[in-house]
User: What shape does this take?
Amino acid sequence: MAISHMGSAHCVEVPLSRDSRHETLRRLAEQGDIGAQLQIGTMYLKGMGVIPDYNEAAAWFRKAARQGSISAGRALAQIYLLAGNASVKNGTNDIGWIRKAAEQGDTATQWRFGMMYLLGSGVAQNNVSGAHWIRQSAQQGDIDAAAALAGMYLWGKAVNQDYTKAAVWFHIAADGGHIIAQTFLAGLYGAGKGVPKNTNQTLYWLEKAAEQGGIFAQSRLGLLYLAGKDVPKDDAKALFWLRRAAEQGDAKAQTALGVMYLGSNGAVQDDQQATFWFRKAAAQNVAVARTALAMMRTIGNNAAERKQFISALKEAIETSSEEPKKLLDSMLPKQF
Assistant: This one.
């Protein structure tokens, strides 16, 4: 594996897998190789072959930062975001290195720095500074920053709420392939907020996100096809997308899939499959799923009761609240 890094004049080939190779990497890092220092820091950050340790990761990133590595500043910003309110030891100069990377134009650092200010992670909470750095990054074409800025306009966080600007920035991020932005943009088209209501655009962007593995888009797409209210009802597509979301752990999709397996919704009646998916959802504290499990023991094969039961479950699923916070949480940077 070639270790490449910003701020170093050379690349060092370092195979990583077992103890001897780890020792080689550490020796290079201790000798001042920036790439090795960044890689060891990343190992501790992500728990790659070692116990995750933000403080140990930060210690190695600082060694690279002292040598002028912009990547180290970006990585330190990520640590502060992931650590939240937990203290990062010996971080006296960390903010300075993060700021330096941001001021040098590294867009990934800029929007992470902005998020630090918005969340008060490692710095005093400051909406003005947060908005400044996120906007700087977004205006340079960073799609993560564009999605974050769109979310700020959507909820009026650190800026005045503006659905039109939210749609503009979500569109920029969505065009760049950002899954969360695509999902939110679909929601704006569905609600007619910031853009004219357009079901075709809703489906288009949900499918874009769903095809990339977006769990929320898959779930929403499946539920739309199952309900058949805003889009033509299509049980086959509903089953396909709900299963994909359910297999990724989406509790709402698991519940809806259980309902489909109760019968009369495009899936062959299979009470074992229904029970399986209801249990999955119930384990995530979904009240509808727990109710479904209890009711299944009483209705048996009574066709009229089963039909009424299915109808009631579908209504409960359709009217249950969405979980935008999970989408927001997923916008936080997870990778260096």
About this structure: Residues 141-212 form a domain with the Serine Threonine Protein Phosphatase 5, Tetratricopeptide repeat fold (CATH 1.25.40.10). Residues 6 and 69 are 6 Å apart (CA to CA). The chain has three domains: 19-140, 141-212, 228-320.
